[in-house]
Amino acid sequence: MISIIDCGGANLQSVIYAIDGLKVNYKICKNKNDIKNSSAIILPGVGAAKNVMQNLCDQDLVDAIRDYSNPVLGICVGMQIFYEYSEEENTKCLGILPGKVKKFANSDLVIPHMGWNKVTFENEKYADCNGYYYFANSFYAEIDKNTLAKTKYGKEFCSFVNKDNFYGVQFHPEKSSTNGLTFLKNFFNNL
Amino acid sequence: MLTKRIIPCLDVKKGKVVKGVKFNNHRLIGDPIKLAKKYSNDQADELVFYDIYSSVESESVSINWVNEIAQNINIPFCVAGGIKDITKAKEVLNMGADKISINTPAIENPNLISELAKIFGSQCIVIGIDSFFDGKNFIVYSRTGSTKSRYCTGKKTLEWIQEVQDRGAGEIVLNCMNQDGVQNGYDLEQLFLSREVCKVPLIASGGAGKMEDFKNVFESCNVDGALAASVFHDNAMNITDLKNYLNDKKIEVRI
C-alpha cells in the first residue's frame, strides 16, 4: 500500500488520478501510523516550501518521514523540502539531502520556469524516460553526486535526485502526459 | 530550455464549449471532456477553460466538469472566469486545475492577486488582460464577457502588466481584443512591447489564423506560449501539424 501525503498542495488530486492509472493500491495518509504501514510514500508538493513544511509539522509527520526506510517520492516542492534549507521564505527543510534550494537568479530568465523542458536521465534504468516533462518552479536544486537527471534553464539544475530511499523530481510526472506515466511506471517497477 | 507552448482555449458555458467572434454571438462547439482529450492527444501543451457564464452572471453554476477534466487528461490546465475570491480559487484548484486565471476581479481588487499568490504560490496565478488599442494607447478593458457589460478601465496595459507581476502573478495571458476571433494574426507590436516589461511567462492571445501566425509571434515577440481557439475548434488546423511545422522552422516545441 502506497501512502500519499496531503501536504496542502493543490496537486494532490492530480497525483491521485495519475496513481489511479497505474493500478497500484494507495491511500491518503492521515497520520504517522499510516506512514509506518505503507510500502512507499509520495509527497506531492505545490505552492511554497514554508507552507508544505508547516503542514507536515502540523500533522506531526516530520520525524516519521525522516525515519522512514521504504521508498519516498517527493514531487516539486515535495522534492525541495528534502534539502537542508530553501531560499523560499528562508525555510528550514528536512535535511535528508545536503545543500540548499536556490532561486533562479539570472535576470534574463523568465520566472517561474513554467512549461515543458527536457529531462536527461543519467541512470540506465530510466533510459526510456528521456524527454519533455512539465515544470512550474521558481526555485531549484544544484547538481551534485545525488543527481540522477538534469535539466537546463540558463544553466543545468537537478531534476531527479536520489539518496538512500529518498527520491525527488522537480518536474510534475502527474502532468507530463505519456512521459510522466512512463516515468512513474518505471519508478514503481524499479523499487 | 523551455519549449514554446501551444494552448487551445475552450470557452465553457454551462458545461458546454462555445465560441464567439469578438466576444459575441456564441455558437456551440461541443463537450469539454471530449475536446480536452482530443487536444491532449494532439500534443497540446496546456489547456485553458474559460467559464464565460460564471464570469458574467453572478449566479453560481456547477463546475464539476473541472474535476472530470482532471480525471481525463494529464497535461496542465487553467480555469478562467468567475473566480472572484480565495474560496472559489481553492475549490477550482482542489478539483485538479493547475492554474486559475483572474481578470476582472483583479482589476476591481488588485490585492486579490497578492493574497492568491501568497496562499497558492505564483505558479498557479495567471492574470488575464483584455487589451484594446484605441488608436493611441493600449488600454485594459474589463467585464468583456458581454458587449453590454464591458467597459474601459482607463488603465494602460503595459503599466497593468508591471503591477500584476509585482503583486505576484506567475503568468500573463494578453488578449488583444482588436484581433480576437478574426484570424488575422497576433498583435505583434503590442506583444513585443509587453514582452519588454513582462518578466513572468507571457502568453499571446487573439488573432491566430495560420501556422505562420504562431511562428511570427514566437520569433518576433519571444512569448512563452500562444493561445488560440477558433482555428483548433474548426479543425482548420491540427495541433500536431502545427508543432511539426514550428519544429521545421527551428522553434523548439514538444513533439
Structure description:
With 191 residues, chain A is α/β, with parallel strands linked by helices. Chain A has one domain: Class I glutamine amidotransferase (GATase) domain (Rossmann fold, 3-Layer(aba) Sandwich). Chain A has 6 helices and 13 strands. Chain A has helices spanning 12-22, 32-36, 49-58, 62-66, 77-80, 177-189; strands spanning 2-5, 26-29, 40-45, 72-76, 85-86, 91-92, 100-103, 113-121, 131-137, 139-141, 147-153, 155-163, 166-169. The two termini of chain A are 13 Å apart. The mean pLDDT of chain A is 93. Chain B is an alpha/beta fold. Chain B has helices spanning 32-41, 52-56, 64-72, 86-94, 104-108, 111-120, 157-166, 188-197, 211-221, 230-233, 239-248, and strands spanning 5-13, 16-21, 24-30, 47-51, 77-80, 99-102, 125-133, 138-142, 151-156, 171-176, 202-205, 225-228. In chain B, helix 4 (86-94) links the parallel strand 5 (77-80) and strand 6. The radius of gyration of chain B is 17 Å and the shape is globular. Chain A binds chain B through residues 10-14, 17-18, 21, 46-48, 110-117, 132, 134-138, 152-153, 172, 174-177, 180-181, and chain B through 1-3, 5, 40, 45-46, 67, 70-71, 74-76, 93-98, 119-124, 170-171, 199-202, 224-225, 254.
CATH class of chain B: Alpha Beta
Tally of individual domains of chain A: 1
Distance between the termini of chain A: 13 Å
Radius of gyration of chain A: 15 Å
Beta content of chain B comes to 25-35%
Low-confidence stretches of chain B: none
Estimated radius of gyration of chain B: 17 Å
Biggest beta-sheet profile of chain A: 9 strands, mixed
CATH-derived topology of chain A: Rossmann fold
- Provide the spatial order of strands within the biggest beta sheet of chain A: 2-1-3-4-13-12-11-8-9
**Which architecture name of chain A does CATH use?**
3-Layer(aba) Sandwich
Q: Report the helical percentage of chain A.
A: 25-40%
